[in-house]
Design brief:
The structure is a single chain. The chain is mainly beta and 71 residues long. Helix content is 0%, strand content 35%. The protein contains no helices and 5 strands. Strands 4-3-2-1-5 form a 5-stranded antiparallel β-sheet, with no helix packed on it. Strand 3 (37-41) and strand 4 form a beta hairpin. The protein is globular. It starts with 7 loop residues before the first strand and ends in a 12-residue tail after the last strand. The relative contact order is 0.35.
Length: 71
């Protein structure tokens, strides 16, 4: 899994009909965009460090150029 600042992290519920959680990736810990990520959660407006599990995926909200660097 690789992400860029501004991407959305979506965590699906493991149960049918459960609530999913999403937030904006506001910080990267590795230049190559691999986890962990600092995520600003949409439901709490709090930032936490996340190592996404198999129930998570990245949604790209903005196009990223190939030469843009992750910070």
């Amino acid at each position: 899994m690789k992400a860029h600042i501004g991407d959305q992290l979506v965590v699906e519920s493991p149960i049918t009909g459960g609530i999913r959680r999403d937030g904006e990736i506001v910080g990267l810990h590795h230049e190559d965009g691999t986890p962990p990520y600092d995520v600003l959660w949409s439901d709490t407006d709090e930032v936490s460090v996340i190592f996404p599990g198999p129930d998570a995926h990245i949604r790209r909200l903005e196009p990223h150029s190939k030469d843009s660097s992750a910070r």
